[in-house]
Automatic annotation (TrEMBL):
Alphabetic keyword roster: Repeat
Database matches in Gene3D superfamilies: Tetratricopeptide repeat domain
Family as reported in the entry's similarity comment: Belongs to the PPR family. P subfamily.
Residue stretches of each PPR repeat: 9-43, 44-78, 79-109, 218-252, 253-287, 288-322, 323-348
Protein's name according to its UniProt entry: Uncharacterized protein
Species annotation: Nelumbo nucifera (Sacred lotus)
Keyword Signal attached: no
Protein backbone atom coordinates (compact mmCIF):
# COMPACT_ATOMS: atom_id res chain seq x y z
CA UNK A 1 0.00 0.00 0.00
CA UNK A 2 2.80 2.38 0.94
CA UNK A 3 4.75 1.42 -2.21
CA UNK A 4 1.67 2.39 -4.23
CA UNK A 5 1.62 5.71 -2.36
CA UNK A 6 -1.71 4.99 -0.72
CA UNK A 7 -1.99 6.47 2.77
CA UNK A 8 -3.43 4.03 5.35
CA UNK A 9 -6.39 5.36 7.31
CA UNK A 10 -7.49 4.49 10.82
CA UNK A 11 -9.99 2.07 9.27
CA UNK A 12 -7.10 0.30 7.53
CA UNK A 13 -5.25 -0.09 10.81
CA UNK A 14 -8.38 -1.28 12.61
CA UNK A 15 -8.92 -3.97 9.96
CA UNK A 16 -5.30 -5.13 10.19
CA UNK A 17 -5.41 -5.23 13.99
CA UNK A 18 -8.58 -7.34 13.88
CA UNK A 19 -6.91 -9.81 11.52
CA UNK A 20 -3.77 -10.05 13.64
CA UNK A 21 -5.90 -10.59 16.73
CA UNK A 22 -7.76 -13.49 15.13
CA UNK A 23 -4.42 -15.07 14.20
CA UNK A 24 -3.06 -14.60 17.73
CA UNK A 25 -0.14 -12.44 16.51
CA UNK A 26 -0.02 -10.20 19.58
CA UNK A 27 3.54 -8.88 19.09
CA UNK A 28 2.80 -7.85 15.52
CA UNK A 29 -0.44 -6.18 16.64
CA UNK A 30 1.44 -4.25 19.37
CA UNK A 31 4.02 -3.03 16.87
CA UNK A 32 1.32 -1.96 14.44
CA UNK A 33 -0.65 -0.16 17.15
CA UNK A 34 2.48 1.65 18.37
CA UNK A 35 3.33 2.82 14.85
CA UNK A 36 0.02 4.60 14.29
CA UNK A 37 0.83 7.82 16.10
CA UNK A 38 4.28 7.96 14.51
CA UNK A 39 2.80 8.00 11.01
CA UNK A 40 0.24 10.65 11.88
CA UNK A 41 -2.75 8.31 12.21
CA UNK A 42 -3.71 8.29 15.90
CA UNK A 43 -5.95 5.47 17.14
CA UNK A 44 -9.61 6.05 17.87
CA UNK A 45 -11.92 4.24 20.28
CA UNK A 46 -12.63 1.51 17.73
CA UNK A 47 -8.88 0.96 17.36
CA UNK A 48 -8.48 0.58 21.09
CA UNK A 49 -11.45 -1.79 21.28
CA UNK A 50 -9.99 -3.93 18.51
CA UNK A 51 -6.54 -3.98 20.13
CA UNK A 52 -7.95 -4.70 23.60
CA UNK A 53 -9.96 -7.58 22.14
CA UNK A 54 -6.78 -8.98 20.62
CA UNK A 55 -4.96 -8.77 23.96
CA UNK A 56 -7.77 -10.20 26.09
CA UNK A 57 -8.39 -13.13 23.79
CA UNK A 58 -4.71 -13.99 23.69
CA UNK A 59 -3.96 -14.01 27.42
CA UNK A 60 -2.60 -10.48 27.76
CA UNK A 61 -5.22 -9.07 30.12
CA UNK A 62 -2.78 -7.08 32.28
CA UNK A 63 -1.42 -5.37 29.19
CA UNK A 64 -4.98 -4.72 28.07
CA UNK A 65 -5.66 -3.01 31.40
CA UNK A 66 -2.58 -0.82 30.93
CA UNK A 67 -3.77 0.22 27.48
CA UNK A 68 -7.30 0.77 28.82
CA UNK A 69 -5.99 3.29 31.37
CA UNK A 70 -4.00 5.08 28.65
CA UNK A 71 -7.03 5.70 26.44
CA UNK A 72 -7.97 9.08 27.89
CA UNK A 73 -4.32 10.19 27.68
CA UNK A 74 -4.58 9.57 23.92
CA UNK A 75 -7.87 11.50 23.57
CA UNK A 76 -10.01 8.36 23.31
CA UNK A 77 -13.08 7.82 25.45
CA UNK A 78 -13.96 4.25 26.50
CA UNK A 79 -17.42 3.17 25.42
CA UNK A 80 -19.61 0.20 26.39
CA UNK A 81 -17.77 -2.27 24.08
CA UNK A 82 -14.46 -1.14 25.65
CA UNK A 83 -15.64 -2.03 29.13
CA UNK A 84 -17.25 -5.25 27.90
CA UNK A 85 -13.94 -6.35 26.39
CA UNK A 86 -11.99 -5.73 29.61
CA UNK A 87 -14.67 -7.42 31.72
CA UNK A 88 -14.60 -10.40 29.35
CA UNK A 89 -10.82 -10.73 29.69
CA UNK A 90 -10.93 -10.57 33.48
CA UNK A 91 -13.84 -12.99 33.75
CA UNK A 92 -12.11 -15.39 31.39
CA UNK A 93 -9.17 -15.54 33.83
CA UNK A 94 -11.58 -15.93 36.76
CA UNK A 95 -10.59 -12.53 38.13
CA UNK A 96 -14.18 -11.99 39.21
CA UNK A 97 -13.51 -9.27 41.80
CA UNK A 98 -11.56 -7.22 39.24
CA UNK A 99 -14.32 -7.74 36.68
CA UNK A 100 -16.94 -6.43 39.11
CA UNK A 101 -14.72 -3.47 40.00
CA UNK A 102 -14.44 -2.48 36.32
CA UNK A 103 -18.18 -2.98 35.97
CA UNK A 104 -18.86 -0.65 38.89
CA UNK A 105 -16.58 1.99 37.36
CA UNK A 106 -18.45 1.61 34.09
CA UNK A 107 -21.82 2.20 35.74
CA UNK A 108 -20.66 5.63 36.93
CA UNK A 109 -20.33 6.74 33.31
CA UNK A 110 -22.29 4.43 31.04
CA UNK A 111 -25.34 2.18 31.06
CA UNK A 112 -24.32 -1.48 30.60
CA UNK A 113 -25.95 -3.47 27.81
CA UNK A 114 -27.00 -7.11 27.54
CA UNK A 115 -23.50 -8.06 26.40
CA UNK A 116 -22.14 -6.67 29.69
CA UNK A 117 -24.65 -8.68 31.64
CA UNK A 118 -23.81 -11.90 29.83
CA UNK A 119 -20.07 -11.22 29.99
CA UNK A 120 -20.33 -11.13 33.79
CA UNK A 121 -21.95 -14.56 33.80
CA UNK A 122 -18.80 -16.52 34.81
CA UNK A 123 -19.65 -15.84 38.46
CA UNK A 124 -18.91 -18.71 40.74
CA UNK A 125 -21.28 -19.90 43.44
CA UNK A 126 -19.88 -17.39 45.93
CA UNK A 127 -20.85 -14.50 43.65
CA UNK A 128 -24.37 -15.57 42.68
CA UNK A 129 -25.81 -12.75 44.81
CA UNK A 130 -23.64 -10.24 42.97
CA UNK A 131 -24.85 -11.65 39.69
CA UNK A 132 -28.43 -11.16 40.78
CA UNK A 133 -27.80 -7.54 41.83
CA UNK A 134 -26.22 -6.84 38.43
CA UNK A 135 -29.27 -8.30 36.68
CA UNK A 136 -31.61 -6.41 38.98
CA UNK A 137 -29.90 -3.08 38.23
CA UNK A 138 -29.94 -3.84 34.53
CA UNK A 139 -33.57 -4.88 34.16
CA UNK A 140 -34.88 -2.20 36.49
CA UNK A 141 -33.11 0.59 34.64
CA UNK A 142 -35.50 3.00 32.82
CA UNK A 143 -33.59 2.52 29.55
CA UNK A 144 -34.03 -1.23 29.57
CA UNK A 145 -37.23 -2.88 28.43
CA UNK A 146 -37.15 -6.45 29.68
CA UNK A 147 -37.96 -8.97 26.96
CA UNK A 148 -37.99 -12.72 26.56
CA UNK A 149 -34.78 -12.78 24.54
CA UNK A 150 -32.77 -10.88 27.17
CA UNK A 151 -33.87 -13.17 29.97
CA UNK A 152 -33.39 -16.32 27.92
CA UNK A 153 -29.88 -15.32 26.82
CA UNK A 154 -28.97 -14.51 30.41
CA UNK A 155 -30.19 -17.84 31.82
CA UNK A 156 -28.60 -19.86 28.99
CA UNK A 157 -25.30 -18.11 29.71
CA UNK A 158 -25.47 -18.78 33.44
CA UNK A 159 -26.29 -22.45 32.80
CA UNK A 160 -22.97 -22.75 30.97
CA UNK A 161 -21.02 -21.46 33.94
CA UNK A 162 -22.69 -22.75 37.12
CA UNK A 163 -24.48 -25.82 38.39
CA UNK A 164 -28.19 -26.16 37.64
CA UNK A 165 -29.08 -25.76 41.34
CA UNK A 166 -27.37 -22.35 41.44
CA UNK A 167 -29.10 -21.31 38.26
CA UNK A 168 -32.47 -22.26 39.77
CA UNK A 169 -31.72 -20.05 42.79
CA UNK A 170 -30.87 -17.20 40.43
CA UNK A 171 -34.06 -17.78 38.41
CA UNK A 172 -36.23 -17.86 41.52
CA UNK A 173 -34.70 -14.57 42.67
CA UNK A 174 -35.70 -13.04 39.33
CA UNK A 175 -39.24 -14.36 39.72
CA UNK A 176 -39.59 -13.31 43.36
CA UNK A 177 -38.51 -9.78 42.49
CA UNK A 178 -41.04 -9.80 39.61
CA UNK A 179 -38.35 -8.91 37.10
CA UNK A 180 -39.62 -11.75 34.96
CA UNK A 181 -43.16 -13.08 34.73
CA UNK A 182 -42.90 -15.37 31.69
CA UNK A 183 -41.27 -18.71 30.97
CA UNK A 184 -38.18 -17.25 29.28
CA UNK A 185 -36.19 -18.33 32.33
CA UNK A 186 -38.09 -21.59 32.84
CA UNK A 187 -37.60 -23.06 29.37
CA UNK A 188 -33.75 -23.07 29.30
CA UNK A 189 -33.57 -24.58 32.80
CA UNK A 190 -36.11 -27.30 31.91
CA UNK A 191 -34.18 -28.19 28.76
CA UNK A 192 -30.88 -28.33 30.63
CA UNK A 193 -32.29 -30.55 33.37
CA UNK A 194 -33.83 -32.92 30.82
CA UNK A 195 -30.54 -33.04 28.91
CA UNK A 196 -28.84 -34.17 32.14
CA UNK A 197 -31.51 -36.86 32.68
CA UNK A 198 -33.09 -35.04 35.63
CA UNK A 199 -36.56 -35.37 34.14
CA UNK A 200 -38.47 -35.91 37.38
CA UNK A 201 -36.76 -32.87 38.89
CA UNK A 202 -37.54 -30.87 35.77
CA UNK A 203 -41.23 -31.73 36.08
CA UNK A 204 -41.33 -30.72 39.76
CA UNK A 205 -39.58 -27.44 38.91
CA UNK A 206 -42.11 -26.88 36.13
CA UNK A 207 -44.92 -27.32 38.66
CA UNK A 208 -43.25 -25.03 41.17
CA UNK A 209 -42.68 -22.24 38.66
CA UNK A 210 -46.13 -22.46 37.10
CA UNK A 211 -48.18 -22.97 40.26
CA UNK A 212 -46.01 -21.10 42.77
CA UNK A 213 -45.04 -18.12 40.64
CA UNK A 214 -47.91 -18.09 38.15
CA UNK A 215 -45.66 -18.54 35.12
CA UNK A 216 -47.63 -19.35 31.95
CA UNK A 217 -45.64 -21.99 30.04
CA UNK A 218 -45.17 -21.65 26.30
CA UNK A 219 -45.46 -24.41 23.72
CA UNK A 220 -41.67 -24.71 23.69
CA UNK A 221 -41.56 -25.56 27.40
CA UNK A 222 -44.45 -28.05 27.16
CA UNK A 223 -42.90 -29.83 24.17
CA UNK A 224 -39.46 -30.06 25.77
CA UNK A 225 -40.88 -31.58 28.94
CA UNK A 226 -43.33 -33.96 27.23
CA UNK A 227 -40.52 -35.21 24.98
CA UNK A 228 -38.25 -35.87 27.98
CA UNK A 229 -41.01 -37.53 30.01
CA UNK A 230 -41.83 -39.94 27.18
CA UNK A 231 -38.17 -40.75 26.67
CA UNK A 232 -37.84 -41.50 30.41
CA UNK A 233 -40.92 -43.79 30.24
CA UNK A 234 -42.90 -41.42 32.46
CA UNK A 235 -45.78 -41.80 30.05
CA UNK A 236 -48.63 -41.13 32.44
CA UNK A 237 -47.16 -37.79 33.53
CA UNK A 238 -46.57 -36.86 29.88
CA UNK A 239 -50.24 -37.43 29.06
CA UNK A 240 -51.35 -35.47 32.12
CA UNK A 241 -49.18 -32.58 30.97
CA UNK A 242 -50.66 -32.83 27.49
CA UNK A 243 -54.19 -32.51 28.87
CA UNK A 244 -53.08 -29.67 31.14
CA UNK A 245 -51.61 -27.65 28.30
CA UNK A 246 -54.88 -27.86 26.36
CA UNK A 247 -56.88 -26.76 29.39
CA UNK A 248 -54.53 -23.81 29.86
CA UNK A 249 -55.15 -22.67 26.30
CA UNK A 250 -51.78 -23.69 24.87
CA UNK A 251 -52.52 -25.42 21.57
CA UNK A 252 -50.38 -28.47 20.77
CA UNK A 253 -48.53 -28.33 17.46
CA UNK A 254 -47.48 -31.07 15.07
CA UNK A 255 -44.35 -31.75 17.13
CA UNK A 256 -46.46 -32.37 20.26
CA UNK A 257 -48.82 -34.72 18.45
CA UNK A 258 -46.02 -36.63 16.74
CA UNK A 259 -44.34 -37.26 20.10
CA UNK A 260 -47.51 -38.76 21.56
CA UNK A 261 -48.54 -40.60 18.39
CA UNK A 262 -45.12 -42.22 18.27
CA UNK A 263 -45.44 -43.33 21.91
CA UNK A 264 -48.84 -44.88 21.19
CA UNK A 265 -47.61 -46.60 18.05
CA UNK A 266 -44.59 -48.12 19.79
CA UNK A 267 -46.77 -49.44 22.61
CA UNK A 268 -49.23 -51.01 20.15
CA UNK A 269 -52.18 -48.87 21.25
CA UNK A 270 -53.57 -48.52 17.75
CA UNK A 271 -57.09 -47.44 18.66
CA UNK A 272 -55.78 -44.58 20.81
CA UNK A 273 -53.30 -43.76 18.06
CA UNK A 274 -56.07 -43.01 15.58
CA UNK A 275 -58.23 -41.30 18.17
CA UNK A 276 -55.38 -38.87 18.77
CA UNK A 277 -54.93 -38.49 15.05
CA UNK A 278 -58.58 -37.54 14.70
CA UNK A 279 -58.23 -35.02 17.53
CA UNK A 280 -55.23 -33.51 15.76
CA UNK A 281 -57.18 -33.10 12.54
CA UNK A 282 -60.16 -31.63 14.40
CA UNK A 283 -57.83 -29.00 15.82
CA UNK A 284 -56.72 -28.18 12.25
CA UNK A 285 -53.19 -29.39 12.94
CA UNK A 286 -51.94 -30.59 9.57
CA UNK A 287 -50.04 -33.92 9.57
CA UNK A 288 -46.56 -34.09 8.05
CA UNK A 289 -44.45 -36.96 6.72
CA UNK A 290 -43.39 -37.96 10.24
CA UNK A 291 -47.05 -38.23 11.25
CA UNK A 292 -47.83 -40.49 8.29
CA UNK A 293 -44.77 -42.63 9.02
CA UNK A 294 -45.89 -43.15 12.61
CA UNK A 295 -49.43 -44.07 11.56
CA UNK A 296 -48.29 -46.42 8.79
CA UNK A 297 -45.82 -48.16 11.10
CA UNK A 298 -48.54 -48.58 13.72
CA UNK A 299 -50.94 -50.10 11.21
CA UNK A 300 -48.31 -52.51 9.91
CA UNK A 301 -47.54 -53.65 13.47
CA UNK A 302 -51.24 -54.37 14.01
CA UNK A 303 -51.38 -56.35 10.73
CA UNK A 304 -53.72 -53.76 9.18
CA UNK A 305 -51.81 -53.77 5.90
CA UNK A 306 -54.62 -52.58 3.63
CA UNK A 307 -55.25 -49.56 5.86
CA UNK A 308 -51.51 -48.86 5.91
CA UNK A 309 -51.42 -48.96 2.10
CA UNK A 310 -54.42 -46.62 1.88
CA UNK A 311 -52.72 -44.18 4.21
CA UNK A 312 -49.60 -44.33 2.05
CA UNK A 313 -51.69 -43.29 -0.97
CA UNK A 314 -53.17 -40.44 1.09
CA UNK A 315 -49.63 -39.31 1.78
CA UNK A 316 -48.69 -39.49 -1.89
CA UNK A 317 -51.73 -37.47 -2.94
CA UNK A 318 -51.05 -34.69 -0.42
CA UNK A 319 -48.27 -32.18 0.14
CA UNK A 320 -46.05 -34.51 2.17
CA UNK A 321 -43.17 -36.45 0.64
CA UNK A 322 -42.47 -40.11 1.58
CA UNK A 323 -39.16 -40.91 3.24
CA UNK A 324 -37.22 -44.19 3.71
CA UNK A 325 -39.07 -44.53 7.04
CA UNK A 326 -42.32 -44.59 5.05
CA UNK A 327 -41.33 -47.43 2.75
CA UNK A 328 -39.45 -49.63 5.25
CA UNK A 329 -42.43 -50.78 7.37
CA UNK A 330 -44.64 -51.26 4.28
CA UNK A 331 -42.11 -53.42 2.46
CA UNK A 332 -41.35 -55.40 5.59
CA UNK A 333 -45.02 -55.87 6.52
CA UNK A 334 -46.25 -56.96 3.09
CA UNK A 335 -43.23 -59.25 2.57
CA UNK A 336 -43.71 -61.05 5.88
CA UNK A 337 -47.41 -61.47 5.10
CA UNK A 338 -46.49 -63.27 1.86
CA UNK A 339 -47.77 -60.40 -0.29
CA UNK A 340 -44.44 -59.99 -2.07
CA UNK A 341 -45.79 -58.57 -5.33
CA UNK A 342 -47.55 -55.81 -3.42
CA UNK A 343 -44.37 -55.17 -1.43
CA UNK A 344 -42.46 -54.66 -4.69
CA UNK A 345 -44.74 -51.72 -5.53
CA UNK A 346 -43.08 -49.72 -2.78
CA UNK A 347 -39.60 -50.08 -4.28
CA UNK A 348 -38.21 -47.14 -6.25
Amino acid sequence: MKEMKFIPTVVTYNTLLAGLGKEGRVKKAMDLFSSMKEVGCPPNTVTFNTFLDCLCKNGEVDLALEMFYKMTEMDCVPDVPTYNTIIYGLAKENRVSDAFWIFNQMRKLLFPDLVTLCTLRPVKVSRIDDAFRVAEDFFNHPQEHTNRTSMKVLIEGILIEVEIDQCIIFAENLLSSRMCQNDSILCPVIKSMCKHKKVHDAYHLFERFTMGYGIQPTLESYNALIDALLEANLTEIAWELFEEMKKDGCNPDIFTYNLLLDALGKSGRIDQLFELHEEMLSRECKPNTITYNILISGLVKSKSLDEARDLYYDLMSGDSIPSPCTYGPLIDGFSKAGRVEEAKQFFG
